[in-house]
Specification:
Structural class of chain A: mainly alpha
Oligomer: heterodimer
Radius of gyration of chain B: 15 Å
Largest interface: A-B, 70 and 32 residues
Helix content of chain A: over 70%
Largest sheet of chain B: none
Number of strands of chain A: 0
Number of strands of chain B: 0
Radius of gyration of chain A: 21 Å
Distance between the termini of chain B: 40 Å
Strand content of chain B: under 5%
Mean pLDDT of chain A: 84
Chain lengths: ~200, ~35
């Protein structure tokens, strides 16, 4: 929904960097929330952590109601009616859509690993305290934010210089995915004493 | 180990640059693939 909203403000060739910044909202949320929630859990209880999340969510709703506006690039009913109708099957079997699904499927293995396994691993596997784990857990998000913003900026520059979407977005965005997957796959060959 | 996890999973965040704008680029006129 958020991406759909910002696409009403930015034309295609200027969307990559805003999309990258938008996607980092979740990363910055984790960077702030993980240590804060850890603090609430350690010093109070997990009940306070849930309560804090609810309050922040309500604050976001109020901010959205006050500040959210439609962008100028809204497709009118007449414009939509003029577009040729394309069956959903054709859209969902397009190479771009299938490629994006495959890339997202692969990337979320690593991203989910970071969300579910990273903190227990550094506490139980590497012996850090829960308090230290809260700070260490934000490191992948910080590094990921740098990569995403840098890639988004380079992609947008490439688009303005005339590169195709496939090159400036598909290829440029996929290279870090492949390198990240290769780096993570090397973990399986490290000796067990490294993880003890 | 922490460095490997940080770099590896951090690089995979590049997916956010790829998919939303590319899917937004699909248009009825060129719906077979983004150009």
């Amino acid at each position: 929904m958020a991406a759909h909203a910002i696409y009403k403000w930015f034309p295609d060739e200027k969307r990559t960097l805003p999309t990258a910044i938008l996607s980092q909202g979740s990363a910055f949320g984790v960077i702030l929330a993980v240590p804060a929630l850890n603090w609430a859990i350690v010093n109070h209880s997990w009940h306070y952590a849930f309560g804090a999340l609810g309050v922040v969510g309500l604050m976001w709703v109020v901010a959205w109601l006050v500040m959210g506006k439609e962008g100028p690039l809204v497709q009118t009913v007449a414009m939509a009616a003029a577009d040729p109708r394309v069956p959903y099957f054709q859209l969902l079997t397009s190479r771009t859509f299938i490629g994006c699904c495959a890339a997202t499927f692969g990337a979320y293995w690593a991203l989910s690993l970071g969300l579910t396994w990273f903190t227990p691993f550094i506490v139980q596997g590497l012996g850090f305290s829960q308090k230290d784990a809260g700070w260490i857990s934000v490191l992948p998000r910080v590094f990921g934010a740098v990569i995403v913003l840098l890639t988004g900026w380079v992609s947008q520059v490439m688009l303005t210089k005339g590169y195709t979407t496939r090159g400036a977005r598909g290829v440029l965005g996929s290279v870090p995915l492949v390198i990240g997957g290769l780096i993570l796959s090397t973990m399986s060959v490290y000796p067990a004493r490294w993880t003890a | 180990m922490i460095a490997i996890l940080v770099v590896g999973s951090g690089l995979c965040g590049a997916i956010y640059v790829v998919c939303p704008p590319m899917i937004g680029r699909i248009h009825p006129g060129v719906c077979s693939a983004a150009p």
